[in-house]
Amino acid sequence: xxxxxxxxxxxxxxxxxxxxxxxxxxxxxxxxxxxxxxxxxxxxxxxxxxxxxxxxxxxxxxxxxxxxxxxxxxxxxxxxxxxxxxxxxxxxxxxxxxxxxxxxxxxxxxxxxxxxxxxxxxxxxxxxxxxxxxxxxxxxxxxxxxxxxxxxxxxxxxxxxxxxxxxxxxxxxxxxxxxxxxxxxxxxxxxxxxxxxxxxxxxxxxxxxxxxxxxxxxxxxxxxxxxxxxxxxxxxxxxxxxxxxxxxxxxxxxxxxxxxxxxxxxxxxxxxxxxxxxxxxxxxxxxxxxxxxxxxxxxxxxxxxxxxxxxxxxxxxxxxxxxxxxxxxxxxxxxxxxxxxxxxxxxxxxxxxxxxxxxxxxxxxxxxxxxxxxxxxxxxxxxxxxxxxxxxxxxxxxxxxxxxxxxxxxxxxxxxxxxxxxxxxxxxx
Length: 429
Description:
By secondary structure, this protein is mainly α. It folds into 2 domains: 32-205 and 214-260, Growth Hormone, Chain: A (Up-down Bundle); 268-419, no CATH class. Helices cover 75% and strands 0% of the residues. The chain is built from 16 helices and no strands. Helix 5 packs parallel to helix 7 and helix 14 (358-367) runs antiparallel to helix 15 (371-395). The longest helix has 39 residues, at 217-255. It is a multi-pass membrane protein.
């Protein structure tokens, strides 16, 4: 019908056919995304990566050296905050699925609404209150708020990909833009934070040659000045990243148009939340992949949070830690094309083993504490982190998991339909 309509003059077609052709042409034009729209969409994902990278590398040492809480309290803040962030993920997804369409879309109100609170919680996370008793509750509260609000921003942002265009190739192109900017955001976050707060962890503040004698009054006064200066530089870094949030959400709102879901069912049987969750958790491949992703992510985050702490207090590399962090992330960015080639050449499972590169090199840094070894370990860690960044978002978990879930769902629907068919020696084609 489409080929016949192209051959005939437009005047010879019926009114309904002409209307259908105009609608199809309009949909094709709307499905096309401009480069500006893709760039604006990608910029919207940068602040979460910037803040996530900064907190992953520097929050633990900040809590210990600047906020002056105990190691047990610091680990409690990090573990409970991360756990709360994971709990809020499905909750936010469920709430978004129940949201109604507004003039600016279904997802955009979530991002616009949570951004101001996200900025405030992130800034207060790097602020040291005047009281000492119960200070751990301050950081636990604001780190949990930051994790929850970050999830409330990130879930609708990633979901927005499906509402940018009806063309799969355009959505894939927008995802490529987003991945590029997110990787750069990870690099920028650690670089900016590291260069700003480097003065807060240099050895000159605590340079005491004889700890066995009586401490002088100058030494007793110097840590107070050091702590005050350290708190100021951390707040400056937090303010810069907070302004970045406001700038990026403005670019996202002004440059991206959210389209209503053209594939949404008008009517149908809705699966209850807990029933869908139970069916999902009964899918074996999904559980295996999610478990591996959880363990790998935990390993990478543990290394990130302890690397700066180890370099500063154990390896006597406090004057180089910011450059080591920068080396890790530059190596990660530059090695992404290599991992892409490796993945296409040897497959997804072989590429996943590249994440284990950090294990022997991390052991080497613990046993041989030298600057050269530290930079070698930083490069190897960057290669490993690149694999952990690329595989989940590009072609490993996010293709295995959805594909497996979709295939499983389709197979169940097909079996249900076959059971309803009348018994016959041959199945209909």
